[in-house]
Design brief:
single chain, 194 residues, mainly beta, seven-stranded antiparallel sheet, 88% strand, disordered N terminus
Length: 194
């Protein structure tokens, strides 16, 4: 039996653009790439090398795996100007996820030890990358403070909080495995408006 578990944390890259479609309403697209660390725990049984019809339990741990999550967020935003230099945008829309998930497959190295080789340790496990895609939703808020104007553009800084959610079914040796996509993202970055 193989069981994959994802740990919290990772690196994020996010870029987006949009255009005003009516009054304080805008439509846009944001692309985010998230890489999270992943741990793998595996348990199973292996046959005894000396005794017929006797098996031994083995376990395995690997914390050096990863999962990559690429998402396209379509966002419809409503801008609320709070002053000449500060505004807040509330947005929501559909999200499209692509996930590459590395999982364990088969043990490739077993070490025998103990009296009459009664103990076994799994020292290496073969891994395989599964890919899948899904559609979900996103919503959030973006606050922007305008710092200056340059060549007709307003340059500012902002903070964005976005929640997105989706579920991707990945193929495994025994069927499919459901992997959650999205989550809460908090990003600080530059803003450029024309």
């Amino acid at each position: 039996e193989l069981k994959n578990g994802l740990s919290v944390g990772g690196s994020t890259f996010d870029v987006g653009f949009g255009a005003r479609v009516w009054s304080n309403v805008a439509a846009g697209l944001s692309i985010s790439s998230v890489t999270t660390s992943s741990s793998l725990s595996a348990t199973g049984t292996v046959p005894h090398p000396l005794f017929y019809n006797r098996s031994r339990n083995v376990t395995y741990q690997d914390s050096d795996l990863s999962q990559s999550n690429l998402a396209y967020h379509v966002q419809f935003s409503w801008f609320v100007p709070l002053s000449d230099d500060f505004d807040v945008a509330i947005f929501a829309g559909p999200s499209f996820f692509t996930i590459d998930h590395r999982r364990g497959t088969l043990p490739v190295s077993i070490e025998n030890s103990g009296t009459l080789l009664n103990n076994a340790v799994m020292t290496k496990l073969a891994t395989q990358t599964s890919s899948g895609s899904a559609t979900g939703v996103n919503a959030g808020i973006d606050a922007t403070y305008h710092l200056m104007e340059f060549m007709g553009a307003r340059i500012g800084a902002g903070v964005m909080v976005r929640w997105s959610s989706g579920s991707v079914d990945l193929a495994t040796a025994s069927g499919t495995q459901s992997v959650d996509a999205g989550g809460v993202q908090i990003a600080v970055g530059a803003r450029l408006r024309f």
